[in-house]
Amino acid sequence: MIVKQLSVFLENRAGRLAEVIGVLGDAGVNIRALSVAETADFGVVRMIVADADKAHGLLKEHSITSAETGVIAIEVPDKPGGLAELLQTVAGTGVNIEYMYAMLERREEKAVMIFRIDDTEAGLKKLQDAGVKVLEPAEVYEL
Question: Are 39 and 46 in contact (CB under 8 A)?
Fold first, then answer.
């Protein structure tokens, strides 16, 4: 149930993000979720792609620094307060969220959020035991 996330490290300059996304697009790699965080000097692009291994190889071929990280994808009720309810459940398990971001598409009447938690394996079990709907990787890559 652990999804592969690519983290790409980029210098903070005009056009650099377009270059990276272009490398993936030109090779037919579909981006399923994307988050960009920045400082004055560099940025971190976190993304879920349909084929992480292919994308990681392409980025390496183009001298673009990237790393794979394990994250989880959780269904969230797509209604006002839905995320708040989910976060209350997560808080009740004691699982610490390092960061999260939204998928680009919905799943039926649900939104999908990507979560990076501090102890992925143990946290995953706690969340499942609490009834949180965690998606299988194939479900995420094909959304």
Answer: no
First CA to last CA distance, the chain:
15
- pLDDT (tens digit, 9 = 90+) per residue, 23-62? 999 999 999 999 999 887 889 999 999 999 999 999 999 9
Q: Cα–Cα distance between 85 and 139 in angstroms, integer?
A: 23
Per-residue confidence at 141, pLDDT binned at 50, 70, 90? confident
3-69 has CATH 3.40.1260.20 classification: no
- Bridge partners for 46 per DSSP: 7, 35
Is 70-142 a CATH 3.30.70.260 domain? yes
